[in-house]
Design a protein that fits this description.
alpha/beta, 14 helices, seven-stranded mixed β-sheet, Rossmann fold
Length: 366
């Protein structure tokens, strides 16, 4: 199969869909890989590295002529214009918060498979997990910067110092991203509270942190009380394929401590704070209702080399399956992989995406 790997064009996005190591494996299996010139330069992979791995180097038109296009971030509108019926796109999509992208993909006729809705037999979202780990860990770093006075924050050091209380960190959602955020905050010796709606997850978190973090049921009252006391709130709520629920209202933000900080990891799915709006690495923070917000939609792009390597570790087996069998047979062999199908032949094929956008959902076989 012919596989295309474009250079990402989202602002400050340096990750790449396939690393030279991945290209070498696919090339050895007999596939032809076309990598856009300088696609990996931002994370230290030269064009020569890709040639040595067996890829051809071309321009964007060559890459988007491939049968299978492997990316990292959702295609921007100029990229969607290059897609066509019969082609397969494999990347993060996050369509529930982006009607314009969804409709453009529908018009293109492409078969679009989203990393973030692929499931695993044992549960979980295997292609989202590594980026959730990265974003969770990053959230505390960027939150600590947002709290600095120069960023408009309260001037609070998360770990405090002897004689001065540590900062209060509240993590909404105890999934992969939330757990990693809490681990980092605990490591900094902050005062950490994690809220989640799953009793089973709360028990697991309690065992995991052994009293180093408070673990609470995420009732509306508990969320409000925790948020109003917080120095840093991290939103890490996920409903696979669907828009994130708005757990923190504008009224709650208005009542927070002035100069507190909020990091919305859920912003790709619309965000879980009512005051959230997408930002970029060029201009990542803004102040709303006296609170510093960080809402970058591609957080892992800031640590692009680590993120790209971690992503390739989990996506490569699926690229092998698509290139060897084609998407239909690959789905037959792995029904959990089939949950990644979001758009095909001009229709939305994922129920939660369709529900979030108010669109009709057609079964994958139609």
């Amino acid at each position: 199969m012919r596989i295309g790997v474009p250079k990402e064009i989202k602002v400050h996005e340096y990750r790449v869909g396939l690393t030279p190591c991945s290209v070498q494996e696919l090339s050895s299996a007999g596939h032809a890989i076309m990598v856009e010139q300088d696609a990996g330069v931002g994370i230290g992979f030269s064009n020569e590295d890709y040639r040595d791995a067996g890829a051809d180097i071309g321009v964007v038109e060559d890459v988007f002529a491939a049968e299978l296009v492997v990316k990292v971030k959702e295609p921007q509108l100029p990229e969607i214009e290059r897609l066509r019926r019969g082609q397969v796109l494999f990347t993060y999509l996050h369509l529930a918060a982006d009607r314009a992208q969804t409709e453009a993909l529908m018009r293109s006729g492409v078969t679009a498979i989203a990393y973030e809705t692929v499931t695993a037999a044992e549960g979980g979202l295997p292609l989202l997990t590594p980026m959730s780990e990265v974003a969770g860990r990053m959230s505390v770093q960027v939150g600590a910067v947002a709290l600095q006075r120069a960023s408009g924050g309260r001037g609070v050091l998360l770990g405090g110092v002897p004689g001065v209380a540590p900062g209060k960190v509240v993590v909404l959602g105890g999934g992969v991203a939330g757990t990693n955020a809490a681990q980092m905050a605990v490591g900094l010796q902050a005062d950490v509270t994690v809220l989640d709606k799953s009793v089973a997850r709360l028990r697991w978190l309690s065992e995991q942190f052994e009293g180093r973090a408070k673990v609470l049921m995420a009732s509306e009252q508990a969320v409000r009380e925790a948020v109003l006391e917080a120095d840093l709130v991290i939103g890490s709520v996920l409903i696979p394929g669907a828009a994130a629920p708005k757990l923190v209202t504008r009224d709650m933000v208005r009542q927070m401590k002035k100069g507190a900080a909020m990091v919305d990891i859920s912003i790709d799915q619309g965000g879980c704070f009512e005051t959230s709006r997408p930002t970029t690495h060029d201009d990542p923070m803004y102040v709303e209702e006296g609170v510093v917000h960080y809402c970058v939609t591609n957080m892992p792009g800031a640590v692009a080399r680590t993120a790209a390597l971690a992503l390739n570790n989990v996506t490569l087996p699926y690229v092998h399956a698509l290139s060897k069998h084609g998407w239909k047979r690959a789905f037959d062999l792995d029904p959990d992989f089939a949950n990644g199908l979001n758009v095909h032949r001009g229709m939305v094929r994922h129920e939660k995406v369709a529900d979030a956008l108010g669109l009709r959902c057609m079964p994958a076989a139609a």
